[in-house]
Design a protein that fits this description.
By secondary structure, the chain is mainly α. It has helices at residues 3-15, 22-35, 45-67, 70-74, 77-102, 112-130, 139-164, 173-195, 201-235.
């Protein structure tokens, strides 16, 4: 078969109009129309990110108010000026990543995993420069208390992030879960800095910062479990 013959066959196939039963078309149109409903569009990404930051900040302050602002009272002006702007920047970045993960086609400012690693390293550098008490008195008991308190603070922050982004769709559910957990973990770290008066260097570097990766891992686990449950429901007869 020659090229002109192939071209002729393709043109005839493209021009052929398949016959579809009009009754079938009507039934499809009625079924789609019956289930279709107007959808309110998501807010712009900057509004979503700003709302997440505000909610996490309010929750962190509320949590510290319940436990006491002992850490804030003990801090110097330099320590306040160094720690909280860094936390604000990290919260803003985490909120932007969360919003991007829940809006398909959005451009991510940074990968969630990179944000978690960079956040831990940046906080460790700041704490290492500011605090020079290298004692480790009651290192594990006090550290575990702060870790638990930080993770407890992360729970309402995670729920708030879910509520803000609930109408979005995560193309990569694991990345979105980690990002949301990391954002909640940063809220937990912020609460600890306001509350905890233990400024031993290793305490803040190990136990306070640990809230971020542990919360991110829990968010990742929650996303994996939720995905498995949904897959099981779809597979069920």
């Amino acid at each position: 078969m020659r090229d002109p013959e192939i071209d002729n066959l393709l043109k005839r196939a493209a021009g052929a109009q398949p016959q579809v039963d009009p009754a079938l078309v009507d039934r499809l149109a009625q079924s789609i129309g019956a289930s279709a409903a107007p959808v309110r569009p998501l807010a712009p990404a900057w509004i979503l990110s700003g709302g997440l930051v505000m909610l996490c900040a309010v929750l962190a302050v509320a949590g510290a108010a319940l436990l006491g602002f002992h850490g804030l009272r003990k801090m110097s002006a330099l320590e306040v000026a160094a720690i909280f702007p860094v936390l604000a920047v990290l919260l803003g970045m985490a909120a932007a990543v969360c919003a991007a993960e829940m809006v398909p086609g959005s451009r991510r400012p940074v990968a969630p995993w990179a944000l978690g690693v960079a956040g831990c390293l940046l906080l460790a550098a700041v704490f290492g420069l500011l605090f020079h008490d290298y004692r480790t008195e009651r290192f594990v008991p006090q550290g575990m208390a702060c870790l638990v308190a930080g993770l407890a603070q992360a729970v309402p922050a995670w729920a708030a992030a879910w509520w803000v982004l609930r109408r979005g769709f995560a193309v990569n559910s694991l990345a979105a879960g980690f990002a949301r957990g990391a954002l909640a973990g940063l809220a937990g770290v912020a609460m600890l800095e306001l509350h905890c008066p233990n400024f031993e260097t290793l305490h803040v570097i190990v136990w306070h910062i640990a809230v971020l990766p542990v919360s991110g891992a829990l968010g990742l686990l929650a996303a994996a479990v939720s995905g498995s449950v949904r897959a099981g429901r779809r597979a069920a007869p």
